Amino acid sequence: MAIRGILKYPDPFLKKKTKPVEKIDDEIRTLIDDMVETMYSAKGIGLAANQVGVDKSVVVLDVPDGDDRENYEKGKNLVAVINPLIVAQDGEIIYEEGCLSIPDFTADVNRFERIVVSGIDRHGKGMEIKAEGLFAIALQHEIDHLNGILFIDRLSRLKREFIKKKILKSIKDEEKRL
């Protein structure tokens, strides 16, 4: 297993729709293991393959029950989904989201409160996940990544432009410090 670099906004690769996985093999399983290690290292609860520069439709998540992330037993709710697809959704929820590819920025995003996702597990078996609350939000966020959509793309135009300007300014400020 290896920790991979996480691409940061405005990297154009993050805006690209990923390709479906055709074959589940050791390369895909290694990718999943690396993504899990990278996610934990970055203290995230989800990660999409394109965030680590891989053009494959794969997500990993480990979402804590409730809001206690400090005392959460890592790996308890770990799931990897290959070629995930939202097949049903219900309700609406607004949640303050952040992203490992857009560090230090958060915003309230409208999501479905409950979803059903179909996909394939790391062994090539079909799976269906019923998710609600934070797990549903995180799944939608990661599936958006696979479709080239960032959480800031779900904001109003005014909010999105404001955050983009702040992000680009922080990048310039960081470059000046180096």
List keywords for this structure.
five-stranded antiparallel beta sheet, Peptide Deformylase, globular, two-stranded antiparallel sheet, alpha+beta, 178 residues, 7 strands, 29% helix
Task: Please report the distance between the alpha carbons of the first and last residues.
Answer: 30 Å
CATH fold category name: Peptide Deformylase
What is the domain total for the residues?
1
CATH level-four homologous superfamily name: Peptide deformylase
Shape: globular
Secondary-structure element order, N to C: HEEEEEEEHH
CATH architecture, please? Alpha-Beta Complex
Number-wise, the strands total 7
Tell me the β content: 25-35%
> What average pLDDT do the residues reach?
95
* Main sheet properties: 5 strands, antiparallel
Rg (CA only): 16 Å
| CATH C-level | Alpha Beta
Number of helices: 3
Explain what you see.
This protein is of the alpha+beta class. The chain has a single domain (12-177), classed as Peptide deformylase (Peptide Deformylase). The chain has three helices and seven strands. The chain has helices at 26-41, 133-146, 157-177; strands at 46-48, 58-62, 78-90, 93-99, 102-111, 114-120, 126-132. The strands form two sheets. It has a five-stranded antiparallel beta sheet with strand order 1-2-3-6-7. A two-stranded antiparallel sheet has the order 4-5. Strand 4 and strand 5 form a beta hairpin. The radius of gyration is 16 Å and the shape is globular.
Question: How would you sum up this structure in a few lines?
Answer:
29% of the residues lie in helices and 29% in strands. With 178 residues, it is α+β, with helices and mostly antiparallel strands. The protein has a single domain (12-177), classed as Peptide deformylase (Peptide Deformylase, Alpha-Beta Complex), CATH 3.90.45.
